Amino acid sequence: NNAGIMTGPDEAMHKSVDGIEATFATNVVGPAALTLSLLETLRASSSPGAPSRVVNIGSRSIMGFSGMGGPAQFDFDNIDGSKSFHGVEAYKNSKLAFAWLTYELARRSKDKSVTVNIVCPGFVPETAGEHAKGFQKFLFQHVLTHVPGAHSAAEASDNLVWAVTDPALADVTGKFFGERKPWDSGSDAQDTAKAKKLWETVCALAKIDDATVAKLGLA
After folding, report:
1. 155-178: per-residue pLDDT in tens?
2. pTM
3. Nearest to residue 28, comparing CAs of 213, 209, 202, 216?
């Protein structure tokens, strides 16, 4: 699940065709709906010792770092952006929500025929700034590409391929990885009560009812 957007700092909030704030719709609700719609197929495609894999693309921005401010401050009462909206904060919040969703789906998938993990591919300035303008575009494409910890798109892609294919991860589920190693996503991301609440919120937004959740064995 690689689809993701971040609204620029000078852009206004916009919504999906379903009336959901676009960042949350693209980065969380859409991937959840797609994954659950394919879950039975993924189970059927698994074999002993080789579960199917769901790999979600996360971001260490949820813990905050230079250029993106402090840690994500998720507000369940502001998912629609009606109280306040800032593109970077909405992005960080969506990635925190995606971590919750990953952990919750992993907990609910009791038969272990499908593993569910989340991976931060690393900071990739060339793609993060591809829609930027003016000085911001120059900054992303010619300055931030040289800072420690920056990755090329090819390097970032390799991190994701590793999570999808490495045999050592065959039975690993419910983990956050960054640059081919486990990463501590922080206490807020590990909050099981918030993860459960986020799961219920996303199911409601995606129109996935309790009967469907039960049928999938995720109740």
Report:
1. 888 999 999 999 999 999 999 999
2. 0.91
3. 202
